[in-house]
């Protein structure tokens, strides 16, 4: 095909992804707003309200980037006065984490509620049964081996722990999917070029969305990793989906 990244070998994917996010780290938050017309904020808010953290939630936010999910978690536990909660943000890219740390400081977060740890979703630097909640938002599709991501999620969760994933998915309506594809392939790389002065990372973004398994297929993969009560919910007609499961 004429889309460059599709020919990249599996073994090279991780390195490519690392570069992509190294290049976009500074512009990442602005570009999210531009490309999604701000809607990613609503999806993330909804994601955390679906998790509805209780007292004693020990969350691991994987591919946590610049902290969007972790910060919403912190806001939630403050608003609903949840006690004894903590979030660990992990990401393979230290540039993204550094942007997150600066944001967290500016937001005056209690340093005791959050920590940042560089790490690969496919080989998490944590012991078994460490957390009781696991989130990954717009990160799963960037990983090379989804099955490894899922088995690692299962390993680090305690029994009873919940897995939740927010990710781009596929629209149910084929005409809308076609329109959405036009927007993605034609408009997004152009905006990347115009605003962030980069084309390739945004072309990659669009392709990685296209290659990620659809709702049902992904649900099966989560079940194969051992999770129970696996379910998904489409948001915005299936542009994104939330998958959830429990380690029982
Ligand atoms: N979760 C954040 C959000 O919703 O704004 C960031 C999402 S960003 C689109 C994807 C993140 O996945 C990047 O920060 C990237 O560095 C990270 N990432 C890619 N591959 C990874 C891996 N194998 N392990 C951990 N993080 C990874």
From TrEMBL:
<comment type="function">
    <text>Methyltransferase required for the conversion of 2-polyprenyl-6-methoxy-1,4-benzoquinol (DDMQH2) to 2-polyprenyl-3-methyl-6-methoxy-1,4-benzoquinol (DMQH2).</text>
</comment>
<comment type="similarity">
    <text>Belongs to the class I-like SAM-binding methyltransferase superfamily. MenG/UbiE family.</text>
</comment>
<protein>
    <recommendedName>
        <fullName>2-methoxy-6-polyprenyl-1,4-benzoquinol methylase, mitochondrial</fullName>
        <ecNumber>2.1.1.201</ecNumber>
    </recommendedName>
</protein>
<keyword id="KW-0472">Membrane</keyword>
<keyword id="KW-0496">Mitochondrion</keyword>
<feature type="binding site">
    <location>
        <position position="91"/>
    </location>
    <ligand>
        <name>S-adenosyl-L-methionine</name>
    </ligand>
</feature>
<comment type="subunit">
    <text>Component of a multi-subunit COQ enzyme complex, composed of at least COQ3, COQ4, COQ5, COQ6, COQ7 and COQ9. Interacts with PYURF; the interaction is direct, stabilizes COQ5 protein and associates PYURF with COQ enzyme complex.</text>
</comment>
<keyword id="KW-0831">Ubiquinone biosynthesis</keyword>
<keyword id="KW-0949">S-adenosyl-L-methionine</keyword>
<dbReference type="InterPro" id="IPR004033">
    <property type="entry name" value="UbiE/COQ5_MeTrFase"/>
</dbReference>
<dbReference type="GO" id="GO:0008425">
    <property type="term" value="F:2-methoxy-6-polyprenyl-1,4-benzoquinol methyltransferase activity"/>
</dbReference>
<comment type="pathway">
    <text>Cofactor biosynthesis; ubiquinone biosynthesis.</text>
</comment>
<dbReference type="GO" id="GO:0031314">
    <property type="term" value="C:extrinsic component of mitochondrial inner membrane"/>
</dbReference>
<feature type="binding site">
    <location>
        <position position="66"/>
    </location>
    <ligand>
        <name>S-adenosyl-L-methionine</name>
    </ligand>
</feature>
<dbReference type="GO" id="GO:0032259">
    <property type="term" value="P:methylation"/>
</dbReference>
<dbReference type="InterPro" id="IPR029063">
    <property type="entry name" value="SAM-dependent_MTases_sf"/>
</dbReference>
<keyword id="KW-0999">Mitochondrion inner membrane</keyword>
<keyword id="KW-0489">Methyltransferase</keyword>
<dbReference type="InterPro" id="IPR023576">
    <property type="entry name" value="UbiE/COQ5_MeTrFase_CS"/>
</dbReference>
<keyword id="KW-0808">Transferase</keyword>
<feature type="binding site">
    <location>
        <begin position="120"/>
        <end position="121"/>
    </location>
    <ligand>
        <name>S-adenosyl-L-methionine</name>
    </ligand>
</feature>
<dbReference type="Pfam" id="PF01209">
    <property type="entry name" value="Ubie_methyltran"/>
</dbReference>
């Amino acid at each position: 095909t004429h889309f460059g990244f599709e020919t990249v070998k599996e073994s090279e994917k991780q390195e490519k992804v690392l570069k992509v996010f190294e290049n976009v780290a500074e512009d990442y938050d602005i570009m999210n707003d531009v490309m999604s017309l701000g809607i990613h904020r609503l999806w993330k808010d909804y994601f955390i309200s679906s998790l509805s953290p209780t007292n004693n939630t020990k969350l691991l936010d994987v591919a946590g980037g610049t902290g969007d999910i972790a910060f919403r978690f912190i806001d939630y536990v403050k608003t609903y006065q949840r006690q004894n909660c903590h979030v660990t943000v992990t990401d393979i890219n230290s540039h993204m984490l550094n942007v997150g740390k600066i944001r967290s400081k500016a937001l005056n977060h209690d340093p005791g509620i959050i920590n940042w740890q560089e790490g690969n979703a496919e080989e998490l630097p944590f012991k078994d049964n460490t957390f009781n909640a696991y989130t990954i938002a717009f990160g799963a599709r960037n990983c090379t081996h989804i099955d490894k991501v899922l088995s690692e999620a299962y390993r680090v969760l305690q029994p009873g722990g919940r897995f939740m994933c927010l990710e781009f998915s596929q629209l149910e309506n084929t005409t809308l999917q076609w329109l959405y594809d036009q927007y993605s392939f034609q408009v997004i790389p152009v905006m990347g070029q115009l605003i962030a002065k980069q084309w390739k990372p945004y072309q990659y973004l669009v392709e990685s969305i296209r290659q990620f398994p659809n709702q049902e297929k992904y649900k099966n993969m989560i079940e194969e990793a051992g999770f129970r009560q696996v379910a998904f919910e489409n948001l915005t007609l299936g542009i994104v989906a939330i998958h959830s499961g429990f380690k029982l």
